[in-house]
Design brief:
single chain; 349 residues; Beta-Lactamase; Arc Repressor Mutant, subunit A; 3 domains; five-stranded antiparallel β-sheet; 15 helices; 10 strands; globular; disordered C terminus
Length: 349
Amino acid sequence: MTTLADRLLPALDPSAGHATLRRTAAGVVDRVVGHDLAVWATVDPATAMTTSCVLHGADRDPALEAEVFAHEYGAEPEVLRFSDLLAGPLIDTVHRATDGDPARSARHRETLAPRGFTDHLRLVLHDGRTPWGAVELLRADGVFTAEEVAALAAVSRPVAVALREALLGARATGAADAALAPLEVDGSGLVLCGSDGRVFDVSDEARALLGAADGDVRLPPVVAALVAGRRGAAPATRTVHAPTADGRWLSFTATALGGRVAVVVDPIRPGRLAELVARARGLSGREQDVLAQLALGRSNRRIARALGLSEWTVQDHVKAVLAKFGVSGRAELQAALFLGAYADLHDGG
């Protein structure tokens, strides 16, 4: 019997880019697990907050998006938030989570049911260490079966691995691409929003960073998610890292500004991007510390002094780091991982 995984996994090509990979996955899943609308999102690996969305079955609906984010990040209790799924089964449906009474979910009662949906399924794409994406399937007739839930649960990890490679693969191999090209942007970008999510202004710097300097800017969903979080239980200031369509990673920080919300947009700092790559490779906390020292070109002796370790211990950690990146030496590691994007980290010491 052909499973969903049998059909889906051979179709996934990380080199095609994260958006194309999600569109491909959505098409395959649609033919196996029927639904009327699907949202395939990337998430910030550090915070699991939604950063970009690919829709399957409909065009982007900003009003629906704003309502969903308000339920996801608001102060009121909600059923089946992705952050809750992270700590549990990674997948569930509103019917199962509410014992057959989906009206207990404000998201379903106030937003989805009025639009004709009868059930929705939510899945976190998790590689075993870190979340890289999330999927929501909405059905307008009937409910998702236990067999359908099991089929989707089985592909969470392999799809997450493919998505991770699509998001970070170009940098992990040192490949030259548009994402590494320098941006001639002076200062940070700014997106000014109302507390209801309405956009008042987008600075020229933000337009350049988002790749819309010469045309209308299409703000990524992470902006709406951050604004919704500011209205809810999120910290007063929150930073999320998100990839653009061309693979460039940006940093978005939301903070209160009078009665409005300002979202500051910056290129992600090299050290932060290195953290994401290290997370994807499964480095332990201490191995990440050693990697940061290797990025600075430091010897085992200097690393040992900086981290308060013996040189023998550092040597073991260095071997582990090289093995997890699949390289044979320090020069190869720097060439493959840090060339170009991380050049400014090297101090020659």
